């Protein structure tokens, strides 16, 4: 009764998703990061989908995200490879404070950090310097990701935290996205244990 093109069922008069069924994560006792779970859905979709217009594969140039202002695109393949490359370059266990406007680099950064079990602490770039200082004192991050436009608000980082700042629009950061091109990602390494009960984010 369901139209395979639209998903509309004439009997129930409801629309159904044309995407494959997404199954729940494994039991909470099994280690699993958000990144590993989300990326497993991409792989599962690739293996279960046929040559349809909605299929998404890891190796094809299907677009994951578009920067509306510049027209720049991030493909699913680039998302996976750049997330892996960045994760290899980052340290485990820190709290990461993120002060950045939306960009194509943000999902890569989030997925990389979450794959390592790093707690992310995102802040709003339009907040005042005093607001940012208050949030920094609450989260006490080991690393801060900012941009050249927002870094001036990080004037009161406590030096005793040994916190380093990384600019996501710097050539150094961009090089980390392509430094490693290896499918044997830390995301899939079981030595990197991230439990489903672990804290993922500090939200203000």
UniProtKB/TrEMBL annotation:
Q: Does the keyword Ligase apply?
A: yes
Domain of life of the organism encoding this protein: Eukaryota
- Keywords (A to Z) from UniProt: Ligase
Is-annotated flag, keyword Secreted? no
Q: Which GO terms describe its molecular function?
A: CoA-ligase activity
Q: Which Gene3D superfamilies match?
A: N-terminal domain of ligase-like
> What InterPro entries does this protein map onto?
AMP-dep_synth/lig_dom, ANL_N_sf
Stretches assigned to the AMP-dependent synthetase/ligase domain: 63-204
User: What is the protein's name according to its record?
Assistant: AMP-dependent synthetase/ligase domain-containing protein
């Amino acid at each position: 009764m369901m139209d395979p093109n639209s998903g509309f069922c004439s009997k129930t008069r409801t629309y159904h998703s044309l995407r494959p069924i997404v199954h729940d994560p494994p039991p909470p006792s099994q280690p699993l990061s958000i990144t590993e779970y989300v990326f497993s859905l991409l792989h599962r979709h690739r293996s279960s989908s046929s040559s349809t217009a909605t299929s998404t594969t890891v190796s094809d140039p299907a677009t994951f995200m578009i920067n509306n202002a510049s027209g720049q695109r991030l493909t699913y393949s680039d998302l996976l490879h750049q997330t892996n490359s960045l994760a290899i370059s980052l340290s485990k266990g820190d709290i990461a404070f993120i002060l950045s406007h939306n960009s194509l680099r943000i999902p890569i950064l989030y997925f990389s950090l979450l794959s390592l079990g790093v707690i992310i602490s995102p802040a709003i770039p339009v907040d005042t310097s005093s607001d940012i200082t208050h949030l920094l004192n609450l989260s006490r991050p080991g690393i801060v990701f900012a941009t050249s436009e927002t870094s001036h608000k990080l004037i009161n980082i406590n030096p005793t935290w040994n916190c380093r700042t990384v600019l996501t629009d710097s050539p150094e950061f961009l090089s980390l996205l392509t430094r490693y091109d290896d499918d044997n990602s830390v995301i899939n390494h079981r030595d990197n244990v991230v439990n489903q009960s672990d804290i993922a984010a500090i939200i203000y």
